[in-house]
């Protein structure tokens, strides 16, 4: 394992021409980036007692995280992480449509489809 | 309390498939979109299939595609993905109490195929459905994994044939997150925390100029939520009728979680004990 990692920079340096090999290396790195944060916390907390306060704290994690990600997608530029309040007006309006549909139907597919149709139609107008 | 089953012979896997169907269906357009983006970034369809199985995260794959198109170095690809996936540490530890009694192998399998959407379904199911087992939860994960990776591969195959506005396609992810927020916001406090998290996310992303701003905002906002709830429960004489903890008006939502029911049962048991003690003292 250690050898594999110490050889990686050399391997990558020689893959200028070989796209498939480079993509495989990217996939391996991506797999580790996906695996580490998923597995170890679950393992840690499934073998130990979880303190009550930690559980109570975790209760508010999903809603905070999803909000932060939505804000990132709508109000933050991907290039320089600048704040643009009205950079995607059609997405803001479509977001309102999604929330209304989700509130009344409680259906995930309905909400996503309404959002996609909404943002597509609005992008033709705005 | 026990509901009569309409079809007792109905196989469990079919039932679970029914639960995961909305998710599997909504993965199709997003998966197609992701496959198209990854194809545009230079991956062939076998690579797309592999990456969608091992990463299995819409957000990470969308970002991976955009990093590949700008020829970002391997180190920054790894770090960006790692910070983006760091949220699973939080999601996973909040689910771990339900899968405690399972084997190491099961926990491994469960952890690698967890993602935002099947987490949302499983969390809701574990919290509201007493009969929901870890095996069912794993099944939901695998159904969604199959639908996601197949949709990705098909997207990769048709990517060269059709041209779609990629920015519209990108919105599928935002819509999915919005849906989950609306499902999560039940009390006034969750609404306050959601708004707080939005403000903090902007501040910290602009300050750090990276995705880690999302993680910082999440940790702070959720911790403040915990602090407020804790303070209200300790200080207030009637915590349930406090403004923060009362439920928002919602159409047809009267679900109580399993935890709520257990809490009520425990309270009743303690009350009974106290009454019994009083009676025996009076005698």
From TrEMBL, chain A:
Pfam families: AzlD. InterPro entries: Brnchd-chn_aa_trnsp_AzlD. Keywords: Membrane, Transmembrane, Transmembrane helix. It comes from the Bacteria. The chain crosses the membrane at residues 20-40, 60-81, 93-122. This is Branched-chain amino acid transport protein (AzlD).
UniProtKB/TrEMBL annotation, chain B:
It is found in: Cell membrane. It is a multi-pass membrane protein. It holds the Pfam family AzlC. The chain crosses the membrane at residues 12-30, 36-56, 63-84, 176-204, 210-228. Keywords: Cell membrane, Membrane, Transmembrane, Transmembrane helix, Transport. The keyword Glycoprotein does not apply. Its main location: membrane. InterPro entries: Brnchd-chn_aa_trnsp_permease (IPR011606). Belongs to the AzlC family. This is Azaleucine resistance protein AzlC. It comes from Limosilactobacillus antri DSM 16041.
């Amino acid at each position: 394992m250690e050898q594999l990692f110490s050889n990686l920079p050399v391997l990558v340096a020689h893959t200028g021409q070989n796209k498939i090999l480079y993509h495989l290396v990217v996939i391996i790195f991506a797999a580790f980036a996906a695996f580490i944060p998923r597995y170890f916390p679950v393992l840690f907390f499934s073998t130990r007692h979880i303190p009550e306060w930690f559980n109570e704290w975790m209760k508010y994690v999903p809603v905070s995280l999803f909000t932060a990600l939505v804000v990132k997608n709508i109000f933050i530029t991907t290039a320089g992480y600048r704040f643009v309040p009205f950079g995607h007006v059609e997405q803001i309006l479509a977001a309102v449509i999604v929330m209304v549909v989700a509130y009344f139907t409680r259906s995930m597919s309905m909400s996503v489809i309404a959002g996609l149709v909404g943002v597509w139609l609005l992008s033709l107008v705005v | 309390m026990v509901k009569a089953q309409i079809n007792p012979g109905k196989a469990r896997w079919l039932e679970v498939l029914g639960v995961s169907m909305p998710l599997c269906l909504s993965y199709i357009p997003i998966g197609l979109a992701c496959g198209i983006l990854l194809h545009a970034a230079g991956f062939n369809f076998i690579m797309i299939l592999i990456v969608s199985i091992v990463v299995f995260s819409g957000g990470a794959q969308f970002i991976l595609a955009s990093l590949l198109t700008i020829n970002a170095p391997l180190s920054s690809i790894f770090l960006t993905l790692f910070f983006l996936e760091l949220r699973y540490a939080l999601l996973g530890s909040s689910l771990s109490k339900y899968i405690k009694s399972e084997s190491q192998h099961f926990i491994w399998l469960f952890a690698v195929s967890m993602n935002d959407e099947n987490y949302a379904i499983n969390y809701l199911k574990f919290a509201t459905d007493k009969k929901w087992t870890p095996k069912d939860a794993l099944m939901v994960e695998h159904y969604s994994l199959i639908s996601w990776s197949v949709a990705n591969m098909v997207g990769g195959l048709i990517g060269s044939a059709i041209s779609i506005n990629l920015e519209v396609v990108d919105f599928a992810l935002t819509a999915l997150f919005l849906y989950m927020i609306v499902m999560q916001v039940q009390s006034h406090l969750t609404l306050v925390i959601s708004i707080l998290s939005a403000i903090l996310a902007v501040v910290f992303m602009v300050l750090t100029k990276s995705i880690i701003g999302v993680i910082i905002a999440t940790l702070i906002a959720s911790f403040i939520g915990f602090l407020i709830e804790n303070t209200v429960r300790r200080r207030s004489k009637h915590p349930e009728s406090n403004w923060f903890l009362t439920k928002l008006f919602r159409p047809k939502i009267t679900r109580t979680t399993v935890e709520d029911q257990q809490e009520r049962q425990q309270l009743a048991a303690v009350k009974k004990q106290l009454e019994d003690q009083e009676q025996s003292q009076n005698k």
